[in-house]
Specification:
about 180 residues; mainly beta; 5-stranded antiparallel beta sheet; 5-stranded mixed beta barrel; about 15% helix
Length: about 180
């Protein structure tokens, strides 16, 4: 799910980058904010940081004693992406294993569907392994699959989420190219 959030942040401008012109200072603050924002990746509470949408406020700068750098408190709005239990999502299969498949959805790389949560699908081994049901519907690499989120887990060391999903429910499973065009 996409969220729009407002965040406070501290931006540090090195003394050598300071300029008397207001516009250049504002530009430096925005550049430093975007650099810091892009390196943050994600938090457990807000999910993955996607984009800064608006810069709401730049507070008064405070000079740091030992370095001469200036710290500016800023407030900005941004978009984030976080998975929630019960949410329906479309993911792309990137790995097929005997016991299930891994999907990607947006910035989330590790979304897993166990073979136990794919009713009526059977594993078909081979050079390009896949899961197939009696109606010849296939779940293989690069196929888009609609699924429901059963649970998520935050991995602090990697600063990323993992999710466990299921195909148990109405209108869940591989999404055909023809259906997604209409």
């Amino acid at each position: 799910m996409f969220l729009k959030v407002q965040l406070p942040w501290n931006v540090i401008i090195p003394a050598e980058c300071l300029d008397a012109k207001d516009l250049m200072l504002q530009r430096q603050i925005i550049i430093r904010l975007l650099e810091a924002f892009s390196s943050k990746k994600a938090t457990q509470e807000l999910g993955y940081f996607l984009a800064v949408t608006t810069l709401e406020n730049i507070g008064e700068g405070k000079v740091r004693q030992h370095t001469g750098d200036v710290l500016f408190p800023v407030v900005f709005s941004c978009l984030t992406f976080k998975l929630y239990r019960g949410e329906i999502l479309n993911g792309v299969v990137h790995k097929v294993l005997k016991h299930g498949v891994f999907l990607r959805c947006g910035p989330v790389e590790n979304i897993y569907i166990s073979c136990q949560k794919m009713p009526d699908y059977r594993y078909v081994p081979g050079e390009n392994p896949l899961f197939m049901n009696e109606k010849m519907s296939k779940i293989e690499k690069d196929v888009v699959v609609r699924c429901i989120v059963m649970g998520t887990k935050w991995i602090e060391a990697e600063r990323e989420f993992q999710a466990l999903v299921s195909l148990e429910g109405d209108y869940l499973g591989p999404v055909s190219d023809e259906a997604s065009l209409h």
